[in-house]
Each structure stands twice: as structure tokens, then as C-alpha cells.
Amino acid sequence: MNLPVAALVVLGAVGVAVLGMYLVRRHAPVGGFFTSVDRAGGVFGVVGTAFAVLLAFVIFLAFESYTNAKEEARREADAVQEHYATTSFLSPPARNELQGQLICYSRAVIEDEWPAMKHQRRSALVDRWASRLDTTVFQLDVTDANDDIALTHWLETDALRKGGRGGRIAEAAPFVPRPLLIILVLGGVIVLVYMLFFADSGERFVAQALMIGTVTAIFVSSMLVVDFLDHPYENTSGSIKPVDMSRTLEVIERDQERSRPPEQRVDIPCDGRGKPDTPS
Predict the structure, then answer these.
(1) N or C: which end of the chain has fewer CB within 10 A?
(2) What pLDDT does residue 263 have?
(3) What's the average model confidence in pLDDT over 84-111?
(4) What's the confidence (pLDDT) of residue 260?
(5) Are 21 and 209 in contact (CB under 8 A)?
(6) What separation in angstroms does the CA of 67 have from each of 132, 239, 245, 248?
(7) pLDDT tens digits, residue range 37-90?
(8) With contact defined as beta carbons under 8 Å apart, do 233 and 239 qualify?
(9) Where are the chain's structural domains?
């Protein structure tokens, strides 16, 4: 949800709450519905505190999930860049083949898998390039010590790449269980309804509108924050984007352009979106 829509949702909810206070206030006696405001306030304090603690706990866990998704994406991108550096120790045919596949893998992550994660899916295209990388590495002909060292380092880094990819895909699924969301919404509604019974026809309406409007704004805003953190790849302001993989791809492509003459550059087996030039 983008910021303008979120602001409209908050304003709409505040408007409904203020209207509810206005309607209840028309039938409220002077002094309110409670014979003892202190006792009612004590109960409200317990209910409100319990709800606030639960909400804060959920936001904390959702934020951890969000930051973990960013960290896993960064770890995968760093591993791809390390892969690319490792290929420089291999013989030219193997080096060129792996470098081309790494470029295609990076493009597919950016252009295909990131949009798919918005819908809690992984990319079959990225799976294909990952499989081709594994096949190429397993078919390497190790002929000297440099090849052996490069292969060992590749396999160590490969675990980081696969772990990073798996981690960021896992975070695409909602982290907060639906029953917990229902409890949060129900708790917020209970707090707001309870506040309506503090309506007092003898008090200025502005003061009571401000009271319920402020609480409603905080509650709705908090729920929107939970929803935002629970869907980190929504492609809205603040969402996690493939910044790290884009940076890695930029570094690789810049190296291709600067370090070699055109006739010696890697033959990249895909288009700009990571789709293979020929079916595999």
C-alpha cells in the first residue's frame, strides 16, 4: 500500500470513529455512561496496555522479518559478485561460460523473481540459471592447482548464494499468523468501542473527537505498519527492492566493458530480462 492510500485509510478510519463518537454522544447523559470514571479508566488502562504490548511485540517480530529479508538479499548479491571474481582463476572457456550465466542469473533475479515474490512465488527462470550454473561447475575439468582452489572457493560461496536466495524467498510469505491478526483487529475494535462509552454530552465535542481520533489514528497506522513489514516485496515506497543485486550486476557489466576489448567479451546467453536466447 502506497503512502497516499495509507493516509486516506487512516483519515477514513478517524472520520468513522469521530462520527461514531458524535452519534453516541447525542444519547449520552451528562457525565457519561459510567457512574465511576476512575473504575472505568482502570479497566480501560488494563485493556489498552495489553493491546499495546501485543501490538508492539508483533511489530517487533515483523520488523525482524523485514530486516532479515534485506540481509538475505544482500548476502546473495555479495555471493554472486564473489562468484564472478572466482571465475577469473579458471581457464577462459569455463570462465566465460560461468560469467555469462552469472549475468543471466542476476538479471533474472531482478526482472523476474522480484515481481514474483510480491505474489509469494519463486522464479522458474532463476531456478533454470541456478541449475545451469551447478551443471557447468560440476562438469569443470580441473587440470591444475588454480582450478582446484577456484572450484573449492566457488562451492563455499555457492552455499551463501543459495542460502541467501532461500532466505529472501522465505520472507515473501506473510510472517504474522492470521489468527494473531484477527486478535489484533478485534483488540483494537474493543478498545475503540470501549472509548465510545466515555462519551459525555456535557463535555466539548472537540475534546472527545480528539481523544478517539488520536487513538484510532495510532491503531490503524500501527496495523498498516504491520501489513507493510509483513509484505516486504510489494514494490511501494520503503519496500525491499533488488538494490544489492542491481549493484552487483552493474559491477559485473562494468568490468566486462572496461577490462576487455569488444571481441573478447563474454557471450551472454540471455536478453536484458534474463530470458535465455535459446530454449534449454
Answers:
(1) C
(2) 56
(3) 90
(4) 63
(5) yes
(6) 30, 11, 16, 20
(7) 777 778 778 888 888 888 888 888 889 889 999 999 999 999 999 999 998 888
(8) yes
(9) 69-174+231-274
Which set of grid coordinates corresponds to residue 27?
A: 444519547
How many residues does this entry show for the chain? 280
Residues 230-233: contacts with CB within 8 Å, 24+ apart?
Answer: 230/62, 230/65, 230/174, 230/175, 230/176, 231/118, 231/174, 232/65, 232/66, 232/69, 232/70, 232/171, 232/172, 233/69, 233/114, 233/117, 233/118, 233/172
Round to whole Å and give the CA distance between 125 and 116: 11
Q: How confident is the model at residue 245 (pLDDT cuts 50, 70, 90)?
A: very high
In angstroms, the CA 139 to CA 97 distance is 12
